[in-house]
């Protein structure tokens, strides 16, 4: 039992060390990194598809999925450079996977990197990838109870993006409740209401991310 705990602690410490190494790597290159966490089907890739025309000249994406490179292909079709990580069985990306990806995926001319984590609101909340911030992506179709049921995902996130708001007229989903519950775990967390279908909220969200990126650049390490 104590051996298991010790090994777990060692693995966590190693993960933390690699994440810090990545953080330094991103900082040195002036790359602002956003780690998107959310359930399967929450609309993470669609959000990036919506942002692609606005960011493709300066941004790239690392896609995490158990299998297939479909998300990478979707983004590349829109001109956004992307790299696919397949975790095979793992339910989250870890720092070593991102470090390996960066050996093959150069970040030339990139100052904004989105990492789309494996679809899951639990494990990705616990793993650092050297990112500047995590963003929780929650769709209106998942049910308005999700921010309350996944408090850690809210707590570790710098903002919550509520996706698919174009579908609200067809659903019983109380967005105000989602906002209240997110704030209960993460006081003051900004919430962006978006639709990849209509484009609603995308500029507002992106401007906020870019503002945060500028603020970080202005802050010494
Ligand atoms: N109506 C609507 N559907 C959306 C929106 N965003 C995503 N979807 C749909 O939701 C499904 C899952 O989207 P995807 O981006 O692949 O989710 P991911 O698994 O989080 O990357 C797809 O069928 C999308 O077309 C949206 O804003 N509005
Ligand atoms: Mg996806």
Describe the protein in words:
43% of the residues lie in helices and 19% in strands. With 221 residues, the protein is of the alpha/beta class. α1 runs parallel beside α4. The radius of gyration is 17 Å and the shape is globular. The model has no long low-confidence stretch (mean pLDDT 96).
Quote the beta fraction: 15-25%
Radius of gyration: 17 Å
Largest sheet descriptor: 7 strands, parallel
How many distinct helices?
8
Question: Which strand order does the major sheet show?
Answer: 3-2-4-1-5-6-7
Question: Helix- and strand-based class?
Answer: alpha/beta
Question: Brief description of this entry?
Answer:
This protein has 221 residues and is α/β, with parallel strands linked by helices. The chain is 43% helix and 19% strand.
Q: Could you outline the blueprint of secondary structure elements for this entry?
A:
Layout: H1 2-29, E1 32-38, H2 44-55, E2 59-65, H3 70-77, E3 81-86, H4 95-104, E4 112-116, E5 133-139, H5 146-149, H6 151-155, E6 157-163, H7 175-185, E7 191-193, H8 202-217
Parallel strand pairs: 1-4, 1-5, 2-3, 2-4, 5-6, 6-7
List keywords for this structure.
7 strands, alpha/beta, binds magnesium ion
């Amino acid at each position: 039992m104590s051996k298991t705990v010790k090994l777990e602690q060692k693995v966590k410490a190693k993960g933390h060390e690699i994440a810090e190494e990545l953080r330094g790597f991103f900082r040195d290159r002036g790359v602002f990194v956003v780690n998107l966490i959310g359930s399967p089907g929450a609309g993470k890739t669609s959000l990036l598809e919506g942002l692609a025309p606005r960011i493709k000249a300066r941004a790239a994406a690392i896609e995490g999925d158990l299998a297939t490179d479909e998300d990478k292909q979707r983004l590349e079709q829109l001109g956004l450079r992307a790299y696919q990580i397949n975790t095979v069985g793992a339910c989250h990306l870890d720092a070593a996977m991102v470090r390996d990806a960066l050996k093959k995926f150069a970040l030339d001319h990139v100052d904004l990197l989105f990492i789309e984590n494996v679809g899951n609101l639990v494990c990705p909340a616990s793993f650092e990838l050297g990112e500047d911030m995590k963003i929780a992506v929650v769709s209106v179709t998942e049910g308005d109870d999700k921010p309350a049921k996944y408090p850690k995902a809210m707590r570790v996130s710098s903002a919550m993006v509520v996706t698919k708001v174009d579908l609200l007229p067809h659903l019983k989903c109380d967005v105000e409740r989602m906002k209240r519950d997110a704030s209960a775990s993460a006081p003051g967390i900004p919430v962006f209401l978006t639709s990849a279908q209509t484009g609603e909220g995308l500029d507002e969200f992106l401007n906020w991310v870019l503002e945060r990126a500028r603020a970080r650049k202005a802050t010494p390490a």
